[in-house]
Amino acid sequence: MQNSEIFQSTSAQEFFRELRHELYNMQRPPDQVILDEVDFCNFLKISKRHACDLRVEGQITYSKIGGKLYYKLSDILNFIERHQVKSVAQSIRLFKNT
Length: 98
Hints:
By secondary structure, the chain is mainly α. It folds into 2 domains: 1-29; 33-97. It has 6 helices and 3 strands; from the N terminus they run H-H-E-H-H-E-E-H-H. The mean pLDDT is 86.
């Protein structure tokens, strides 16, 4: 198989399509990147049950359209920021400054 044939194959075209999509998403601001529930769980490495608990507790905002759940990347990053744990060194510095 020659190089030109490899790049014309269906699997190569699908790979390039996915690559273009990912590159496009990387260039968009976080408030314009939408993840579905599977992507959300994979991003945080949590189960669907834990994701459900976060929604029920009101810890993460989401949208529901036709039974499918969606999350904005900006909301996920805000959630992570709210749960940030300061290092011991930072905590000691803050304590000394007060």
